[in-house]
Fold:
Amino acid sequence: MAARAENDAKQLVFYRGERVFMILNRYPYCSGHVMCVPYAHKRQLHDLNQETRMEMMEDVTRAVQVLQQVYQPEGFNIGINLGKLAGAGVAEHLHIHIVPRWGGDTSFISSIGQTRVLPEALDETYRRVKEAWEAQKAQD
Structure:
């Protein structure tokens, strides 16, 4: 499990905070698709304490800045899928998706072929995002 992983790079965890960690989505919609995940194993936002919710929003904000710098997207989808019927892949552990978007980024391969094509390998995405995250943290 990524929350307790000893090898962050293998698990795609690029940042660990006090209450949350940041991780690449292993099955991204596009390059730069990251998630903010609390260490606390909770299903609902109201089950998290205020400090955790605040840290999540601060790290989501930083993720948007980092992804703007690295990928120059035209927009973002930021969201939480609460519950299986809402599309939560891990329904018992909430997390926030941060997905960079570009005009025309959904092609016939995604919508008809049900296959995703990414312009860069996950290990390259990991390197780029981690370096930019660390550089931004150093500026604070």
User: Anything to note?
Assistant: The chain has a mean pLDDT of 88. The longest strand covers residues 96-101. The chain has four helices and five strands. The chain has one domain: 11-132.
